[in-house]
Each structure stands twice: as C-alpha cells, then as structure tokens.
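Write out the 3D structure for:
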Amino acid sequence: MQTSNDIIAELKKVAVPANLEGMKRFGIDTTQAIGVSIPALRAIAKKIKYNHTLALQLWNTGIHEARILASMVDDPELVTTKQINEWVKDFNSWDLCDQVCGNLFDRTKHVAASIKKFSNSKQEFIKRTAFTLMAEYAVHNKSAGDEEFIAYLSIIEREAYDNRNFVTKAINWALRGIGKRNKTLHAEAIKTAKQILMQGTREAKWVASNALKELEGEAVIKKINR
C-alpha cells in the first residue's frame, strides 16, 4: 500500500513547475503548489481509489495538489462535520475550494448543514464554499427534492449583495446550476433572479442578469423541456 510519502514523491515526478505561472494568471494561490495538472491528479486518484486515512495525511502535507488529490480519494461516508470545518479553514484559493466541494463535500451527508453555516461566513473562501456546494450538489445529486433547492434560492437572494469577487461568482454559479435542474426549479430560479435585480447593487445586478441570460437562453429552455 502506498504511503503519503510515496504519493508526494509521485506528485513531484509529474509536476511541471512551468505550470505555476499559468495557475497564477488564473488567480490561483501557488504558495504551496508544485505544478501538477488536474488530469495527472485524477490519474493518480484512479489508482488509489477510496482511502480516508491517506486523504487525511495528504491534506496535512499542506501541498496544494496533495490537498486536491485528498478530495479525490477520500471516502464521503467517512467525512465528518469536524473534518469539513477544519478543511475549509485551509481554503486559500478558488480552485481548492471548488475541487474539494465537487469531488467530496457535496457527496457527504453534511451538505445542508454546511451550506447553512458557511453562507454566513465573513471569510471569502469559506462563504464561497456554501454556494459552490449548492452548484455542485445540483449537478451531482439526482435524488434531492425541489424543496431543498428552493430553500437554497432564498439564501442566494439574501446574499446576492456580497461584493467579493469569488463569492459573487459562486452565487451566480449556484443560481444558474439550480435553475438548470428541472422545470420547477428553472421557474423558481428566474423568479429569484428577478427579485435580486431589484436589490439595485452592482453585484446583485450582475449575478441576476448573467444568470437570466443563460437561464432564458435557447439551450437551457430546450434542455429542461426534454
């Protein structure tokens, strides 16, 4: 069985330091990064499969890509609220937040509680987590009921004033993601977007108008009417 040290050694072998400049251009914090691509991480994760203990060890290395890999190999069934609360405190970049949410957190049984808690956070990446979870959950969980997402739309409307870039973009992402789920939620998301427009702030106007452009577009209308 591979140890965390083995995995780190493998990561360093496939790392491309030149990738760091490109990561910086996309607004990614590369302080602890080594330049491993997401496809390379997924290839390594495929060989490991689920390993909760290893995931915790990889996270504790502090290496950016090792933490993303941890989210790919952790077992959602074994993730606790304590782990989620500890990991989100380490989020220092939008890509780490999004990868962990989409690979792991949205598949745990703590989604609803995490969204409620993190949507009130004063820290940018922790608050982004709430809305990234909404967006990823809307895509990945096929059995969740409409009522759950309608409750999330209320949170989206409440927080649409936030003027921090990474929060604003995640709120917009969540609104669009929920609205593309089905006919009922499409109508509710459009209604929410129009209510957000009336808030009048620059951020709220962007969140709403950008979402409406997609939700009222031909591609989405065709998709939800299939």
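The chain has two domains: 1-74, 91-226.
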